[in-house]
Automatic annotation (TrEMBL):
Domain Protein kinase: residue ranges: 23-290
Keyword Ribosomal protein: no
Compartment list: Membrane
Organism: Glycine max
EC number: 2.7.11.1
Residues reported in the UniProt entry to bind ATP: 51
Top-level taxon in the UniProt lineage: Eukaryota
Xref: InterPro entries: Kinase-like_dom_sf, Prot_kinase_dom, Protein_kinase_ATP_BS, Ser-Thr/Tyr_kinase_cat_dom, Ser_Thr_Kinases_DiverseReg, Tyr_kinase_AS
Protein name (record): non-specific serine/threonine protein kinase
GO cellular component assignments: membrane
Gene Ontology terms for molecular function: ATP binding; protein kinase activity; protein serine/threonine kinase activity
Keyword Signal among UniProt keywords: yes
Amino acid sequence: MLSIWNHDGKISFEDIIKATKDFDIRYCIGTGAYGNVYKTQLPSGRIVALKELHKSESENPCFYKSFSNEAKILTEVRHHNIIRLYGFCLHNKCMFLVYEYMERGSLFYNLSIDMEAQELNWSKRINIVKGIAYGLAHMHHDCTPPIVHRDISSNNILLNSELQAFVSDFGATRLLDYYSSNQTLPAELAYTLTVTTKCDVFSFGVVVLETMMGRHPTELISSLSEPSIQNKKLKDILDSRIPLLFSRKDMQEIVLIVTLALTCLCPHPKSRPSMQEIANELLVSQPPFVWHFDGISIHQLMKQKIYIIGRS
């Protein structure tokens, strides 16, 4: 079965094979838990990313129907911060998803390379965080039924040529009923195996801290209850590759963003905010705070002493 649509209509399986020269390694731009990713140009001229999926599941007759139904739902998702899923293929020879191609690659890549990371100034990082929040809020609150991503990480946030953020890979996690082993997932999954929107909220908090710190916040998160961590100053955990020379507006938004991230990491899922509440907070113009930026501690942010989240 093939269902790939663009403005020119359906694209044949043979066109995909021809465009990738039968998935030649030269077109491979990455690999992951689901399979390889290929960059290719379709006959219409559109450049896309083809995500090849593992084939073992496709032998199950029940999987064929569930895959098709889910894929059709996901191709209808439209939001300016969500990667467009153009279509899918379930074939006896291969199984893949066809996504919009993003020029700058993953957020993880851009944070891990010094030259790329230095281009991500505070204003750009703030906008990246907002884009992720708006995309997830749409998935959780504007889609019927709600879409839970299950695998939010910096690897699954892609950037376009203007460094705008797009949530990606939401299709593969749902279609393969996949549970990630990445370090952004909350502890409750280990004993409940129940995926909810609050799992995505936790992972969002981790990615936000990673974006602002420039590295994965494993140590910070595992030690949040310790006084030594709580007494750390906000300025001391921010990415040192970016000068602490920013506008007052950036200061306010950095404080708000890190405060929101910390609320997302609450061990109790019901105490975490929803993505809609987070998106609303980021949309509201924030009043100036009276604390001197250099003196703001993690403890103050954890206790929401700078901003009160969820105010009326």
